[in-house]
Amino acid sequence: MLVLFNKPFRVLCQFTDRAGRRTLADYVPLSGVYPAGRLDYDSEGLVLLTDDGRLQARLTDPRYHVEKTYWVQVEGVPSPAALARLREGVDLADGRTRPARVRVLAEPPALWPRDPPIRVRTRVPTTWLELRLREGRNRQVRRMTAAVGHPTLRLVRVAVGPFTLAGLAPGAWRVVAVPAALTSTRRPA
Description:
Elements: E1 2-7, E2 34-35, E3 44-50, H1 53-60, E4 68-75, H2 80-88, E5 91-92, E6 95-96, E7 101-105, E8 126-133, H3 140-147, E9 152-160, E10 163-164, E11 173-176, H4 180-183
Parallel strand pairs: 3-9
Antiparallel strand pairs: 1-3, 1-11, 2-3, 4-8, 4-9, 5-6, 7-8, 9-10
C-alpha cells in the first residue's frame, strides 16, 4: 500500500508523541503504514506512507536517485552565485551535498496559506525557489539555503519521484497505485 499525505505545518512525521503535539495519527487512520522519509515538524507537504519495507527503502535510499521537489521561501533575493552554489552542492557539517536543481519561482500557484503565516519584515524581501534533490539528509534544504546566506522561511515538499500533492489539501490523504518501476527488485548500480 502507498499513501500520499499532505502534512500540515507543525505536525510530527510519526504516529505518536509524548508531548501531545499533532502527529500522523491525527490525520491518517490506517495501521501498519510508516513514513518513507520524513518532513520536519515545521515543514509542510507530501509525505509518503507505506506498509512495504522494500518500497520504503526504494523511495528513500539515495542510491535509487528518487528526486524530491521542494518549494522554498527564503529570506532575501539569492544572487546568481548563491544559486550556482546550490546547483554545485553545498558544504555542510556532515559533508558536501549532491548537486541540486534549482530555479527561482514566482509565488507558487495554488499554495494554501500557512497557519500561522510566516513572519513578514517589510524591509527584507523574500524569494521562492524550486529545489530538486536526490538525497535526504536531516533538515538538508534548510541547511543548504542558510549556507548560501538565505535562511528558509517556509518549506513545502511538492513531489517525491512521480508522486505529487496535486488535489490534496493540507491534512488530506489518498491511497495510490505503485508504478511498476518502483516495485523492481533490481539493485541500483
